[in-house]
TrEMBL record:
GO terms for MF: DNA-binding transcription factor activity; transcription cis-regulatory region binding
Keyword check for Transcription: yes
Protein name: DNA-binding transcriptional regulator, AcrR family
Transmembrane intervals: none
InterPro entries: BetI_C, Homeodomain-like_sf, HTH-type_TetR-like_transc_reg, HTH_TetR, Tet_transcr_reg_TetR-rel_C_sf
Domain called HTH tetR-type: residue spans: 17-77
Ranges of the DNA-binding region feature: 40-59
Record-linked PANTHER family: HTH-TYPE TRANSCRIPTIONAL REGULATOR BETI, HTH-TYPE TRANSCRIPTIONAL REGULATOR RUTR
Coiled coil stretches, renumbered: none
Amino acid sequence: MQTSPPFRRDRARLPAAERRRQILEMTTKLIAERGFWGLSMQDVADGCGLTVPGMLHHVGSKDSLLVAVLEYRDEQDARSLAEKLGRPAHQLWADGRITLAEVCDAVVRRNAEQPEIVRLFAVLEAESLAPGHPAHTYFKTRQRRTLEEFAALADGVVDDPRELAAQVVAMMDGLQIQWLREPETVDLVKAWQAAARRLF
């Protein structure tokens, strides 16, 4: 009778920043597949070739790991968005040279390239509606910041920039859910372009 070999831990020593990035990427993948409540610390550790205590040395608790994953993905997306718009990330919103329509188009194009990350955020955003969820405050703060940034881009262009910002976020989120559910029939970029013609 043949048995599978025992799981072997990765003994290679990685620099702390590289190990942390590896843990965040593995956690991102597992949450996208299972949601936060289905996330096993053992599975993350196994995927990185670590013990659970060894992994927690780099990230702290399960709750702090979740927030670290979300912040890491936000940083990655901000850099990508700045590149797509040809602007330094720290000046993206500052000088009025970028419109809300341009930002939204770049965001949608970026999201269309990474369905697993969009799924991760969609799952966690829904789960975090429960006040006791470890990402509840994160998503509440993130939504406020997004609305403020979008409203600032629309200021002086429409009578009620805050209302437009809320409608844009609702439309983007709704289209993304439809696309995630039926990617074979929904083209996210085309669906957004059609919506944008009505919104802007």
